[in-house]
Known about the structure:
two-stranded antiparallel ribbon
Amino acid sequence: MADLETDRDRLGDTMATETATRLVHRNINNTNAVESNSALSSGEVTNHTGKHAEDLIQWKKHVERVKSKVLDQIQGQLSDLLDKALTESVQIFTQNGNHGNNHINHVTRDGTVTTTNDNSHRTHTEKDGKVFMDRRSILDDLFEINHIRTIYHMFISVLFLFIISTLAVDYIDQGRLVLEFDLLSYAFGKLHIVAWAWLLMFSYTLAVPYNALDLWGTLYHRSPLKVVLSVGAVLVLSALQAAVLGVLPIYVVFHYQLPPASRFIIILEQIRFLMKSYSFIRENVPVILKHKTKEGEGPRGEGPRFPTFSSYLYFLFAPTLIYRESYPRNPHIRWNYVGVTFAKILGCLFYGYFILVRLCIPVFMNDSNTPFSTRTLVLAMFHATLPGMLLLLLAFFAFLHCWLNAFAEMLRFADRMFYKDWWNSTSFANYYRTWNVVVHDWLYYYGYRDFLWLSRRKFRTAAMLSVFAVSALVHEYVFTLGFGFFYPVMFCLFAFFGVAFNFTLNDNRKSPVWNILMWTCLFIGQGVMVCLYCQEWYAQIHCPRTGTSFWELVTPRSWSCSN
């Protein structure tokens, strides 16, 4: 029995051992299978992860492309929408400010202030013309960005390089440091004549158009011969304008033989006074014509509401060509800003002086002694592209930014949008609208829109061409009197190439390639202008005219001068 139990125990242990062995082998096999499956799964996961990462990269690139396209498309639209929203908000604020308050103060000719209840007081809206609002100049905002300010500092460093190179050349040639500004002293000579001529034009513009319109407006609704009165007033005022603001500046320029910069001051101020006086009359005549005399009003109440003399005086100095009785004003004057801005203008003058002395005069003074040829012209033109473009940027920064902002700050004039981001233009149509907003507004409201109104909006192309023609003629008039010779380079570039580019490179061009093309055309155009005007200037010196016939006056001397 004991042996039987012992054999039974041994059999049980053997069976248990075999069972355990089988279980161990099974587990090992299962483990190997799991490891094999895990290895396969890891490979699949790795492949899947790599494919997913590649898809993410492709998706990110696609999103970046879509983002770039969307931003390019909505950039201009968003800017227009923001301007419109600001305009509408100003209009709503103005209307709310005037709502329920129809009392208007009138200043009579003897200085008394009378209050009347006028429900017909007109709030100026965008439909009536330009709406002014509180806005900063774009460059003032951009110069707060470090990257943009660094580009500005690079231009200043180039000015220092011009100064250093001039001093080095003078020291090598003459053995001493010479920093003379004889060109500036010559160009701005006879400033006392410029001063009294400007004072005469200003006094006339201040007194005559204002009082002429006041007299006509007072008599218009009382006179039975309204047409005769109006025609007579137009003829008399036109004759005075032609004599004082037309003939007088030209006489001063030629009689006193003013140097170039002094000539440009006289001619540009002549055009500014003409444009401002026209705007003042154009904005107030419709108000007088629409005025209706009410029954029972006394003699003082029969006339229309007329702008105050102080508003007209402010307008003559304000940096705008569109007349309004009031403009948005800043609360105080930043005199530090004014001083820095005028210092920038002075720096731009010296910058232009060094560009002419170092890059233009040495080249074209020598070229004037060589016969005229295509090779000479092409080489000189491409040599003049860089100085021409620098002079264009300096003129923009000195006048459209610094000069206008300085006067705007002194007058607390709040609307500083004298230009827009013309450098981002992808079409010449947009460039013409954004380069000089001050002049563009005048041409648009008093040229283009009035032409459409007269033609009942039938001849849009003719209206646009007429504006281009007037602008080209005025530009050529300024250059002809400023330089003292007739060479219609500006007129041809503006009237022919400008019109062609306006229709071909229009607002439908949105690609950055068109911005590159626009800048290339600007470089070439400035090179052509600087080259041809400099060649003609020295040709007039070396080969003066011998006669006074018409063809002698209009034929460029640089075409035949070889001395």
